[in-house]
Amino acid sequence: MKKFMTLVLSSVILIFTGIAFGSVNLPFSKILSTFTLENLKLAVYDPKKLGTTETIILQIRMPRVLLAYLVGLSLASAGTASQALFKNPLADPYILGISGGAAVGAALAALYFPTHMGIFALVGALISVAIVYNISKIDDHIPVDTLLLAGIAFGFFAHAVTSYLLYVGRERIHMAIFWLMGTFNGATWDDVKLVLFSSIVGFSFLMLRWKELNLLLFGEESIALGLDLNFYRKIIIFMISMLTAFAVATSGIIGFVGLISPHAMRLMFGPNHKNLLPAAALFGGSLMVFADLLARIVLKPAEIPVGIITALFGAPFFIYLLMKRKRGELYA
């Protein structure tokens, strides 16, 4: 319980820190005094009447920080479920080709419908999952090895299509390039609502099925333990896809958070998904807020895409995991 309370407290502290620091630093006392009933009503019904500082806190910083937290939570939850589904400690939420499909959708939108990048990215992500799923399915059976290879193959194909779109539209594609690197710049309350819905549904279902996630680690042997393996694979694939697709649609492609969070928390809480899943979700949210904070302050007033920040500390961690696996010390 103390470990969980530490994670919750860390989340709260990082959220307030994310609101306080940026191109303009704000004192914590000012942030707390902004949360009055009058200001909250104005933020909802008539935001134009808010003062400058109140606008920065309630209309710019808060939706950005909360979106970062929810995206991190979603990717960490999806990553934890992916590692159980594939029985592979190096699996991440993008392994089903979701990021590739989202990238194609975003690139198309940047060329022809620049105000609808999020919608096109979401549709592209969902279509990619449907394609990978149908390629992998054999008579209502879903072999995870085939699913994994299909996801990887589709990812390469989608990358080629995205590269072509970026090439032919290189004069109009700057927005898509920035999106592909991952960013929370311009986050709105509508984005927060969208990811809040998907994260509540996806995380709640996975938490209710933590026993099944544990059994999935046994693979085909779990059938003897009473698990309808194919049914739960389908449901968990859907939840992973929903969590990841909505996160990607609102923030772009941000790597490594879904890979790092389960491993970091597995060291503290063990492999039981009853504890691992909520711990990874809390850690993932905090990690994303921290990465976004660094993205805003390292070169301020300029901003670094948050995907670059997560890659800088995520890639060495991934190499560390590969070395552990090479020595036979890494388990799902």
Automatic annotation (TrEMBL):
Pfam hit, one: FecCD
Domain of life: Archaea
Entry's localization field: Cell membrane
Topological relation to the membrane, as annotated: Multi-pass membrane protein
GO cellular component: plasma membrane
Alphabetic keyword roster: Cell membrane, Membrane, Transmembrane, Transmembrane helix, Transport
Protein name: ABC transporter protein
